[in-house]
Amino acid sequence: MELEELKNAWQSVRPEIKNTGCAPKDTDCLSRKKDVKSRLLRKFFLEELFVFVCLILLATSHLWSPTKLPVLWLLAFCAVIVAAMVYGIGLYGAIRQINLWEDSNAEIFMAIVNVKKRYRRIELVTSILILPLLIWLSLTPPFLNTTDMYIVWGLTIICFGLEYLWYRSNIKQLNILGNWNEDEI
After folding, report:
1. C or N: which end of the chain has fewer Cβ atoms within 10 Å?
2. How many Å apart are CA 183 and CA 181, to the nearest integer?
3. What is the DSSP secondary structure assignment for residue 104, as one 8-state letter?
4. Could you read off the pLDDT tens digit of each residue along the chain, which spans 185 residues?
């Protein structure tokens, strides 16, 4: 009995999902969403560019850094950064594939939900991999009880705080892109 009620409820709501949002002729609403999408793409591009520059600096740090990190540490950090960068490029592509003019609202909504899930997953995995590496690095004998240890901890706190703010900002933009209420755009 409950299954039939659930099926009937879904069938009654389903047409409403497809009909919410911008009307196909409402170019003003779609152009505002296009602006949000462009802003998101620009932010993800800048993020990938920044990660690439950091990767280059980290990979070449053995040549210029006064505190020479062991090659094993450099490889571990670079591997995590490359994985995050590849995943970020995938997110950029997923956002770019959203077609505001041709896709239905349900398709746009599902694409945004998938992007948000993937984005949350990469942020979590990267944090879980980088944080222990940084803590372990700061507690190894060359860094233990030195100013470098405190610098690593301070930069870790600052960078994770800034990354959290950047993540929240991008999620807000994704929410705006998926929001079908014109007044909030």
Report:
1. N
2. 6
3. -
4. 566 776 777 676 665 555 445 555 566 667 777 888 889 899 999 999 999 998 998 888 888 877 677 788 888 889 999 999 999 999 999 999 988 888 888 888 889 999 999 999 999 998 888 888 888 877 777 777 778 778 878 888 998 899 899 999 999 988 888 775 444 44
Instruction: Return the closest-CA partner of residue 116 out of 33, 174, 42.
Output: 174
| Angle formed at CA 8 by CA 6 and CA 14, multiple of 5 degrees | 100
And the tokens for 133? 């590496």
CA distance 35 to 27: 12
The answer, as to whether pTM is greater than 0.85, is no
The token pair at 159 is 């960078």
- State the Cα–Cα distance between residues 15 and 158, nearest whole angstrom: 47
How many residues can be counted in the chain?
A: 185
Whether residue 124 contacts residue 116, with contact meaning beta carbons closer than 8 Å, is answered with no
